[in-house]
Amino acid sequence: AQKITQTQPGMFVQEKEAVTLDCTYDTSDQSYGLFWYKQPSSGEMIFLIYQGSYDEQNATEGRYSLNFQKARKSANLVISASQLGDSAMYFCAMREGRWGSNYKLTFGKGTLLTVNP
Amino acid sequence: EAGVAQSPRYKIIEKRQSVAFWCNPISGHATLYWYQQILGQGPKLLIQFQNNGVVDDSQLPKDRFSAERLKGVDSTLKIQPAKLEDSAVYLCASRADNEQFFGPGTRLTVL
Known about the structure:
The structure holds two protein chains of two kinds.
Chain A: E1 4-5, E2 10-14, E3 19-21, E4 24-25, E5 32-39, E6 46-52, E7 60-61, E8 64-69, E9 74-79, E10 88-96, E11 105-107, E12 111-116
Parallel strand pairs in A: 2-12
Antiparallel strand pairs in A: 1-4, 3-9, 5-6, 5-10, 7-8, 8-9, 10-11, 10-12
Chain B: E1 5-7, E2 10-13, E3 19-24, E4 31-37, E5 44-50, E6 53-56, E7 65-68, E8 75-79, E9 88-95, E10 100-102, E11 106-110
Parallel strand pairs in B: 2-11
Antiparallel strand pairs in B: 1-3, 3-8, 4-5, 4-9, 5-6, 7-8, 9-10, 9-11
């Protein structure tokens, strides 16, 4: 079974509108973390936002927020006020195990976001 | 601070040839990762080093892939011999505390 599922291969949004990218995960660990990365066409992976399993509040970083619903095992990324430069692949990833251990990330297949002018 | 460096950025080889990729992590980062990212998919971990020791290489195809991290700094990933299905971007990442920093990747095309 996949540990990270991103069901939207592609999404379109109008500039200045908000968009939600879906991510569901599967783990039996109590301690885990969820990341979102952006990958532009140039190929580098850019860290956007992080949510820990014990964090009570949803994470926010500027225009990015993470809608964390633990019971549903979902960690959706919300981008507000989309910009043309937001057009890229977006990956959800999960860390299993506690911080400080030799953790590794498991990535989803990604969602290609296109922002239209 | 300087980021994770990788070279070459692009490589085209024929099947059955050998190829090597180089990664220089961020200074002081003890943990280094190599990922394989096939077109249209997310990165898949190949191998993880802690200093110069291997922590996890469970997904490394050991019959053709090898990696080393001498002196716990730079790392090389080698494929010998390459197959068509090895065409992918190979990403190196390093970590000191809680965030992984990725390099720009090496795009490998096997013809």
